[in-house]
């Protein structure tokens, strides 16, 4: 007998200040590569990766802002229909940490409450950290989301971010 496969597709948006590693994270997760000088490709909206989770096939479409955040001009289309969100900041960029709350608000204004995680990227540069571990934990707690410490460069903890979000989305379906 043929059983129709019902595929779950989830749109994930990654927000945060420029240069925190958003595009690199998408490249790493969806293509398995890290290139220092990766040029943002205008016109590529998202990359995708399929995973199985609890016997379910899940297609994650991870959207790239393509640098729009630098002009504070992220289009509605970017957020439209987003079901999960990564709030990203960098270990070596204090401003990016301070900006997390306003990014969360932007996402909430456009998408309502969706499963969200806080990602501290570039933990390979911990020696140059400008954010105390407790501060990051406190922020995560006050935002009501989980904190993942990640190095996109060294491929530390990237997969778990997206698995967690996918699991949260499946629970809500
Ligand atoms: P975006 O503007 O947020 O999309 O950031 P990019 O993905 O363009 O990354 C900005 C810079 O940070 C690039 O030079 C990346 O190679 C670098 N980068 C990204 N992730 C990491 C990381 O985990 N560790 C280190 N050391 N550098 C990273």
From TrEMBL:
Annotated signal sequence range: none
Which GO terms fall under molecular function for this chain's record?
A: GTP binding; GTPase activity
Q: Which UniProt keywords apply?
A: GTP-binding, Nucleotide-binding
List the transmembrane segments: none
Q: Does the keyword Nucleotide-binding apply?
A: yes
Record protein name field: Ras-related protein Rab-23
Q: Which organism is it from?
A: Cloeon dipterum
Instruction: Please state which portion of the whole protein this structure contains, as first and last residue out of the total length.
Output: 1 to 173 of 241
């Amino acid at each position: 007998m043929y059983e129709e496969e019902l595929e779950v597709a989830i749109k994930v948006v990654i927000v945060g200040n420029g240069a925190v590693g958003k595009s690199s994270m998408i490249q790493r997760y969806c293509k398995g590569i890290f290139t220092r000088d990766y040029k943002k490709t205008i016109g590529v909206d998202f990359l995708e990766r399929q995973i199985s989770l609890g016997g379910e096939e899940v297609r994650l479409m991870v959207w790239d802002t393509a640098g729009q955040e630098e002009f504070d001009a992220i289009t509605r289309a970017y957020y439209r229909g987003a079901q999960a969100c990564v709030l990203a900041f960098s270990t070596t960029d204090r401003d990016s940490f301070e900006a997390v709350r306003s990014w969360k608000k932007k996402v909430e204004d456009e998408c309502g409450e969706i499963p969200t995680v806080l990602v501290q990227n570039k933990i390979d540069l911990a020696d140059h950290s400008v954010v105390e571990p407790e501060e990051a934990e406190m922020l995560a707690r006050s935002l009501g989301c989980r904190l993942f410490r990640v190095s996109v460069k060294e491929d530390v903890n990237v997969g778990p971010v997206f698995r967690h979000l996918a699991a949260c989305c499946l629970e809500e379906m």
